[in-house]
Design brief:
- Strands 1-2-5-3-4 form a 5-stranded mixed β-sheet.
- 40% of the residues lie in helices and 11% in strands.
- The termini are far apart.
- α3 packs across α4 and α6 crosses α7.
- The protein is an alpha+beta fold and 300 residues long.
- InterPro entries: Bact_OuterMem_StrucFunc, MotB-like_N_dom, OmpA-like, OmpA-like_sf.
- This is Flagellar motor protein MotB.
- One of its GO terms (cellular component) is plasma membrane.
- It is a single-pass membrane protein.
Length: 300
């Protein structure tokens, strides 16, 4: 008879290939969120105007600081009643168009001799331009604003009273007379001028390969020639460029006639120096650093 107790063996079965957890799902969700944020930033950069981009940059440079707005927040009445601007912004809390990237620019603009000079020049231009028949009969065709670069005069096209012949850079007589009259006003100051031409987003097909780039550039040059003919010295022309439809005035409706315009900016000395320095850095030749130990004997 066997007195030993029975031995019971228990086998633990392990299932292979089972569930390994959901960590990969979290990683995938984080990646998708990051990509969505990245493309959202790209979209904002694409649709924002240069003024809004400057305002956003100013905020991130100094989030707790004061507003870096550069334009005057008071509308200029040229004979009509004040109207709400059609400019749409990404954020209603952003300052008006024309923000400066640095607080020092805002301080320099609103304080000291530079700020006083801009205010006086702005007031002089408004007073002088009131006497122009074109402005009296159609005061919404000209807008004057104080910007970080200086005082900007924007001449906006009107379908009922256009500035140029349709699809060309030929000034209509009325607009040519206006620019000639403006030249005499500009001669009362010595500030350099920047002239930019703009079009709407409607496709323009001219002779050969002409498009909106050619049209905006030719119209800017036509405005320059009229100002020079009116007495503005050639040496005061700092820049003449065509921007096609890349900087619409009315971003809500890129086809709006408002986007067909000529802008003339009377620049401050500091803005002119920044423009020259930027142009030298971007388009100038490379600087050559000569070795101080070099002598004619070692070279030849």
């Amino acid at each position: 008879m066997n007195n030993y107790d029975p031995v019971i063996r228990r086998v633990k079965k392990i299932k292979k290939g089972g569930h390994h957890g959901g960590a990969w799902k979290i990683a995938l969700a984080d990646f998708a969120l990051a990509m969505m944020a990245f493309f959202l930033v790209l979209w904002i950069i694409n649709v924002a105007s240069p003024e809004e981009l400057a305002a956003i940059e100013g905020y991130f440079n100094d989030p707790a600081g004061f507003s870096t707005a550069g334009y005057s927040n008071k509308p200029i009445d040229l004979g009509g009643s004040p109207a709400m601007s059609t400019e749409r912004k990404l954020d209603m809390d952003l300052p008006e168009p024309g923000s400066t990237p640095k607080l020092t620019d805002e301080t320099a603009q609103r304080e000291g001799n530079n700020g006083d000079e801009l205010e006086k020049m702005n007031a002089m231009l408004v007073e002088q331009f009131k006497s122009l028949d074109r402005i009296n009969s159609n005061n919404h065709s000209m807008r004057i604003e104080i910007t970080p670069e200086g005082v900007r005069i924007t001449l906006i096209d009107d379908p009922d009273k256009p500035m140029f012949e349709r699809g060309s850079a030929q000034l209509v007589p009325d607009m040519e007379n206006t620019l000639l009259s403006m030249a005499s006003v500009f001669n009362q100051v010595k500030n350099p001028l920047v002239i930019t031409g703009h079009t709407d987003s409607l496709a323009f097909i001219g002779n050969g390969y002409q498009d909106n780039w050619d049209l905006s550039s030719e119209r800017a040059n036509a405005a320059k020639r009229a100002l020079v003919e009116g007495g503005v010295a050639q040496r005061r022309i700092a820049q003449v460029i065509g921007l096609a439809d890349t900087v619409p005035y009315n971003r809500v409706n890129p086809d709006s006639p408002e986007n067909r315009r000529i802008s003339i900016t009377l620049m401050t000395d500091s803005a002119y120096k920044r423009l020259l320095e930027s142009s030298r850095r971007r388009f100038g030749g490379e600087k050559i650093q000569l070795d101080s130990s070099m002598t004619p004997e070692t070279v030849f």
